[in-house]
């Protein structure tokens, strides 16, 4: 039965609820701090988050309050999808520089 | 130094918990120390390789290479653990009976040992690559006492892994493989659920309901206990529906598979004497 799992996954994969047209928001990292440190996004909406890293070291965007875990390499950018989230405040951080890389997602 | 130690500790802990369960589950297998050790060493090499190619990985598949890689590694581990669980379902009973009688390592050719070496390697590779990237960044930033932090983190994480392992070994032999097998099943289900989370983040899978519930008031994802529960049983304070689907599918597949495997008579008695045991 477990051998069927890959096929189950393979058949599930095309059932995409595409978020290609999700609104995009940008978070910038500089000196291991997020700018803006408070990012406002709409509630109950899937959002594409652009991460731009201006530092010379990698960072991992991560949160314990909503599912997100993505490494952004030095002087480069990447993106990930988050939500839809209910209204509220959600903390996120940079796993590699936690003392400074802290921010809040304000979902409203 | 303590920031370094803390991050390293958390990554090492995740890998160490998986390695401990695998090591316990292969109790009594000859040369398994070499397999587990070999898996760890392979994993460390792999981690450095992955970290070195992190830039390539980040750019692959129009930006979701990292998510696909993680999901792929996790699902590969799920399949390998699953195979071992099924193998143990048909052989575990004889194994524990033999070990009760003879009291030590008796069987040599556990067919799924190579797979579990791969599971250990994959666990170390996934967590280790983050540690390597982190240390690289810290060094670039001129942080001090890197080696001290690294050592403290590794020792502390490994110590908790050993503690779990030592605890597992105290389980009476009669129940031992039943319990380690169940732990492997939950471990696999949790890994499958984490794989789903990466695929949702990459927008390759729909979430089928975000935040099905929120139990972070009880046990947060970021707490040490929450993280441990996350590794061992796939705990997530705010799971998505798709994660539950992956979790349930894995549990179901292994449960049905194990029942099926148990009904098949073992192909040959391990010790050559009549090893007949009641089916099911």
Question: In words, what does this structure look like?
Answer:
The complex is a heterodimer of chains A (108) and B (280). Chain A is mostly beta strands and 108 residues long. Chain A has one domain (21-107): Sandwich (Immunoglobulin-like). Chain A has one helix spanning 5-12; strands at 24-30, 33-35, 38-41, 47-53, 59-62, 69-72, 76-82, 88-94, 102-107. A 5-stranded mixed sheet of chain A has the order 3-9-8-5-6, with no helix packed on it. The longest helix of chain A has 8 residues, at 5-12. The model of chain A has no long low-confidence stretch (mean pLDDT 88). Chain B is mainly α and 280 residues long. Chain B has one domain (2-263). Helix content of chain B is 72%, strand content 0%. Chain B starts with a helix and ends in a 17-residue tail after the last helix. At the A-B interface, helix 1, strand 6 and strand 7 of A face helix 3, helix 4, helix 5, helix 7 and helix 9 of B.
SSE map:
The complex is a heterodimer of chains A (108) and B (280).
Chain A: H1 5-12, E1 24-30, E2 33-35, E3 38-41, E4 47-53, E5 59-62, E6 69-72, E7 76-82, E8 88-94, E9 102-107
Parallel strand pairs in A: 1-4, 3-9
Antiparallel strand pairs in A: 1-2, 4-7, 5-6, 5-8, 8-9
Chain B: H1 2-25, H2 32-52, H3 54-59, H4 65-102, H5 113-140, H6 146-169, H7 173-201, H8 224-233, H9 241-263
Helix pairs in contact in B: 1-5, 1-6, 1-7, 1-8, 2-5, 4-5, 4-7, 4-9, 7-8, 7-9
